[in-house]
Design a protein that fits this description.
2 domains, mainly alpha
Length: 286
């Protein structure tokens, strides 16, 4: 984000010595040897609204995706989506130069939807907004970009509508698809995503309470009386109570996982997560 802001501010503060459109990607520039524009175009923005929109979307979706994937895969998702987006856009519109991080940001949004398909993207907007899952949001966004690109191609010779012909809808659609494909392929290899909601403190406590609230069936051959709700004894007596284990050992690790990603955890912290998963898994099967 800081690189994008700097790339926007420096040309405008240089007094004209640096062109605002320097770094744009186009076929003419590539043919003349400006290969670096394949990367630099994603940091160049046309106006302040263009920059702020991309940075706001990157901030909202990118923090969680970075925590889930770690820096290496996040950069692969970000720049990989941008490369696919620019290639598709130049293929369909070879005369139109490209600028902006929209293709990269679209890939991050799609990556969030691939990793958390059932999570609501409207939950924080208030109770008056209907629940919209990340999966359905991605479907609607991708479909709308494809429709707009089709309209743009069909009408580009007969009319000029800035919001239709001045926006790289093909790049957006390609970035969304590339980002989803990258994250969808990667998700099974991120072991902490397996039953990922149960790795958060509320999820662990909810699962424990559900297991303890299950009725104990009557013994075979005996008189079946009413089910009695009693807490089950742990399969292996822990040194700490469940509440102490969650509060003192698991919660700090989860906070670090959410803030810095899986790669930041030490072997000891990973063992704590494995112990938590194994403990409550055994309780759920008992």
């Amino acid at each position: 984000m800081l690189v994008n802001v700097a790339a926007f501010a420096v040309p405008r503060l240089s007094g004209g010595s640096i062109s605002v459109t320097a770094g744009m990607l186009g076929l003419a520039g590539l043919r003349s040897g400006e290969w670096w524009t394949v990367v630099t175009h994603s940091f160049v923005h046309n106006d302040l609204l263009h920059l702020l929109t991309n940075m706001a979307l990157l901030w909202v979706a990118g923090r969680r995706v970075l925590a889930d994937m770690g820096p290496r895969h996040f950069l692969g998702l970000y720049f990989g989506s941008g490369l696919v987006a620019s290639a598709v856009s130049l293929l369909l519109h070879p005369a139109s130069p490209l600028m902006g991080a929209s293709g990269c940001v679209a890939g991050v949004i799609a990556g969030y939807a691939a990793l958390h398909p059932d999570r609501s993207v409207t939950a924080r907007l208030g109770p008056f907004f209907p629940r919209l899952s990340a999966r359905n949001f991605l479907r609607g966004l991708l479909l709308s970009e494809i429709i707009l690109e089709g309209l743009s191609i069909a009408t580009e010779r007969t009319m000029n509508i800035p919001m239709l012909h001045g926006v790289a809808h093909a790049a957006h659609a390609a970035g969304l698809f590339a980002g989803w494909l990258y994250a969808w392929h990667l998700a099974p290899r991120l072991n902490f995503l397996h039953e990922r909601e149960d790795f958060f403190p509320k999820g662990l406590r909810r699962r424990r309470m559900e297991v303890e609230a299950r009725p104990v069936p009557a013994a075979r051959g005996g008189h079946a009386g009413p089910a009695v709700h009693v807490p089950r004894a742990p399969a292996r007596p822990p040194e700490k109570t469940d509440d102490e284990f969650l509060r003192e050992a698991v919660d700090p690790v989860l906070d670090k996982l959410y803030a810095q990603g899986m790669n930041s955890l030490t072997p000891e912290e990973r063992n704590i997560l494995n112990e938590a998963a194994n403990r409550f898994s055994r309780r759920g099967k008992s």
